[in-house]
Amino acid sequence: MSNEPRAIFPGSKARKPQYVLGTENGTKRTSNVTEAKIVEAVEDIEDNVAIFLEKCVPVVLVRYAEAYSIDYYKDGSIAVCFRVNGYMLRMWRSDIDCDVAADIMCNFFRTASLPDMTGWHCQKIYPEQETPETKLCVDGEDFRYFDMADVFCALENIIEGKSLWMLYDFIKGDGGYVSIRRRDNDAAPTAGYKVEYVRWTNPAPTGFRGVVSDEGLLRSWLWSLIEGEKLPDPLSCWEEFGVNDYFERLVFRFLDEEKDER
């Protein structure tokens, strides 16, 4: 196994890490984890099919993002799993041999360090027990039971100033989300609405964002998202952004925050 350091995150926030190692495709779990057991599990990946190393207390990257697991698969792919703003995402890449995978997982075990994920792919994931479903969150409050009218009502409350923001997680197409946030500007006669629209397309997600001041246009677009058979195109005033790049920057902000704390 290579002795060359591969980690870029110092992991100073987790000096007493506690982990769970899952082997045999996740069916066998143990909290009695050692580096030797990690290496052995990686070397037996053909039999294990998939292994994971889960940190019981996740590594907090920024206020709303944390890393909780590194997974390695029989096909040579490896993934770092995150929770970000209530979503479960993973950064992954393929063609990782056993030596490199063992280095990455052992570094995570020793110091809660994460690998350099520049150029890795971003993908939304779901727990095995969870099936994709629509979700609605308004001003931080999750709604368990709602219909299309409730989603539209959430927008109306934002327009009327009763709410500040909403997040609608949809499963149409490949799935995705739309975030709408009210932006009041004393210099402008009307409010603006910051919109972020992400679709979990394969092989890479696509994202659009922009500010809309035409409330009628925003209502019409959201209704087409809720009611239409197909996902609507983004509005012409929105700009496309790289979801993978955006998530990488979110993760790498941790480096700057670590420097500020020292």
Q: What can you tell me about this protein's structure?
A:
The chain has about 260 residues and is α+β, with helices and mostly antiparallel strands. It has two domains: about 20-130, no CATH class; about 135-240, no CATH class. The chain is built from six helices and 14 strands. Strands 2-1-3-4-5-6-7 form a seven-stranded antiparallel β-sheet. Strands 9-8-10-11-12-13-14 form a seven-stranded antiparallel β-sheet. A hairpin with a 2-residue loop joins strand 8 (about 135-140) and strand 9. Helix 1 (about 35-45) runs antiparallel to helix 3 (about 100-110) and helix 4 runs antiparallel to helix 5. The longest helix has 19 residues, at about 245-260. It is elongated and about 60 Å long. About 25% of the residues are buried. The model is unreliable at about 1-15 and about 255-260 (pLDDT under 50).
Architecture blueprint of SSEs:
Layout: E1 19-23, E2 28-30, H1 35-43, H2 45-48, E3 50-62, E4 65-73, E5 78-84, E6 87-93, H3 98-111, E7 121-124, E8 135-138, E9 141-143, H4 148-159, E10 165-170, E11 176-183, E12 192-199, E13 206-212, H5 215-227, E14 239-241, H6 243-261
Antiparallel strand pairs: 1-2, 1-3, 3-4, 4-5, 5-6, 6-7, 8-9, 8-10, 10-11, 11-12, 12-13, 13-14
